[in-house]
Amino acid sequence: MRTLALLLALFLSAFLPGPVPAAPPMEHSYGPDAAQAADVYLPERAATLPPAPILVVVHGGSWKNGDKAAAEVVDNKLRHWLPRGFAVVSVNTRLMPQARPEEQAEDLGRALAWIGREAASWHADPSRIVVMGHSSGGHLLALLAADGRMQQRTGAAPWAASVILDGAGFDLQSVMSKPHAPFYDEAFGTDPAAWAAASPAAQLRGKVPPTLLACSTLRPDPCRRSQHFADLLTANGSQAELIGVARNHAQVNADVGADNDETRAIAAFIDARIGR
Fold it and tell me: Tell me, what CATH number does 76's domain have?
């Protein structure tokens, strides 16, 4: 019986997800505030291999919650991209009420500047950075990409592509003028000028990195808003693609890296943009 149980356990282990293939992350500070921190996960690589591409992950949480180390933020992404030779950097920014969304986007810019400076010490390639943001993290990414002046202020390293997972707040003037979740009022207030300052659509002036938007098809708004923003990016000369995912808002993020069509589409998009 014990032999049979052992064989059964070995059989099942072949089909169950294994542990994340990484050493414990190295936590670093990219700014003076304790919240301005990033976890760096490095693949096992021979020194003779080309420098690793970099996947930067930005968590969601309505601009006031979330953490870089949460399982739904990093676990599946590490399982997929670390064995494929990527360095993975999961970023925290300051959150409300300490920092407004625009200040959080500036934190992301500072994190990218720091990643660009540090990449060589990780045997990673700062010219092959891909940034992936979920929900409010997708808004921070879209705002930073749209606002060239913010990139200059923060010294953000250029990145090769953006992946936005069920993003939020692309066109804040439209969002705020219609029925919306109460946390939008907490984040953006009642002043239309503040809406414009934090709105990727309002700040967009020209081309941004190629962008893939994944949206939940289980509710009408996410894909409609994502498609509108993709059309706006295309009209401004940028590359933008949209994929619909039959998962809820949280799953659109947590399932990236698992064995599914969403992961395959995102991985193909990333590989095409970094020349793999």
Answer: 3.40.50.1820
